[in-house]
Amino acid sequence: MLASRHIMTMDDVTAEEIVHILDTAESFAEVNQRRIKKLPTLRGRTIVNLFFEPSTRTRMSFEIASKRLSADGVNFTASSSATVKGETLLDTAKTLAAMSCDLVVVRHKYAGAPQMLAEVMDCSIVNGGDGVHQHPTQALLDLYTMRQSLGKLEGLRVGIVGDICHSRVAGSLVPALRKVGATPIIIGPPTLMPARPDVLGAEVAYDLDEVLPSLDVAYLLRVQFERAARMPFPSNREYASLYGMNAARLAKLPPHAVVMHPGPMNRGVEITADVADSARSVILDQVESGVAVRMAVMYLLLGGADSGAAA
User: Fold this and answer.
1) pLDDT in tens, 240-288
2) Spatial contact of 263 and 283, defined as CB atoms under 8 Å apart
3) How many CB atoms lie within 10 A of CB 285?
4) How many degrees, rounded to 5, is the angle at CA 96 between CA 92 and CA 101?
5) Is residue 35 a part of any domain in this protein?
6) pTM given for the model
7) What's the CA gap between 147 and 7, in Å, rounded?
8) Do 50 and 183 fall into the same domain?
9) Are 141 and 281 in a shared domain?
10) Quick check: 124 and 302 in contact, CB under 8 A?
11) Separation between Cα atoms, residue 155 and residue 141, nearest integer Å
């Protein structure tokens, strides 16, 4: 089990708990390779996916994870719910609380939405992404992927490239890396950096080519045009020429280094198709890791350790 009932930010887990989650996920990854991918671990528990924003990877991996643990999963879609009639998030939360669910995964465009749910619901809350704030299970699955690919986390240098200002992925990954002894470096144009990038606790760089030879991981972020108030750079072509990962830049990385991306990708902007589909890319490994890591999170938050071994 974990000390906190919730995982809303990376502050909710210690360095030791991160390792425990990753170790637990490793046992679930083995289960996911079986012909019958089903465990009775969370039978009788109710897990609600409360998604107010579009999602493919996060939503589907949480749904698959709950099914593989034999939980009763309920998927909430904002477009087909009472929210289109004006129901507030608070009223939706109170309605779910009255139905006695055990865990809610929430994704919302506003930062702080998971905390609001935790105040009115007597169940575990997992943040599936809130605004430009955090996305902790993405950071956990990224750490798992790095450990599986490179054999360790401590001492790694991870370059997080691109739209830092609007990225909840970066908001969780930077503190997660620091907790496990890795060094995060945020890299991007000034227009896609927060006003005070130094307060994130990462090294800051503006020249990608200068940093590449020292990286163990090149982590490309999607440019979030939908969150930017205006076009943050002159053109996609200029961004790609300065910060896009292409074959020439891939060759500048150390031979062991890997390329990551949380998806969805803007191919040709932050990453070219040949790099995304190359042997050095672990982007699909991240997707695969997401199911095992989210199984581990649900299992540990709902007291799975008291109801039998993961395997």
Assistant:
1) 999 999 999 999 999 999 999 999 999 999 999 999 999 999 999 999 9
2) yes
3) 17
4) 155
5) yes
6) 0.94
7) 21
8) no
9) yes
10) yes
11) 18
